[in-house]
Amino acid sequence: MAWTQDQMAARAARELQDGFYVNLGIGIPTLVANHIPAGIDVQLHSENGMLGIGPFPFEGDEDADLINAGKQTVTALPTTSFMDSAASFAMVRGGHIDISILGALQVAENGDLANWMIPGKMVKGMGGAMDLVAGVGRVVVLMEHTAGGKPKLLHRCTLPLTGKAVVSLVVTELGVFAIRPGGVVLVDMAPGVTIAELREKTEADFTVDEALKQAA
Question: The pTM is what?
Fold first, then answer.
């Protein structure tokens, strides 16, 4: 049985460590804000100038002045800081963000990332994605495993790249893949998913982590 988007976000949230500064991309990654593990204190960063984002508000409690980079309403915490976009991007470009959790259109087995445009479709521009993969030490991707039945974890990306060899971990509804110097390694699977199913739906070559083999 495949993970839901919330379960995917919760799995990605397990990659966070106490004290981390974390940027959450638009889409499924924003759900990570609702799944911060107990005992872990992190500061969530948004390119539009919030540092210290709380979980999504309950219906009726929304404040239209408090939004994330995807224009979703969010909540502020007692520790929240507000800044202009220049200072916000200075944090990213200065290496002060520990981890970015982003969506993707495609990821290659060497860690290349394509997540900003599809040729022929109208786009507003790359936005902060290029900065977030170039200025941040670790990039985790949260994405659906396939699109239109076609794999999104590939030998090589066919869409315009956001960054080269930048992705460290990919979390889909079917499993979790670590991108390491020796190649892609399957490190976790959703309940009921088989390795055979993953090989059928994944173009990229991957090996299976020994700990996962023993648990399977």
Answer: 0.92
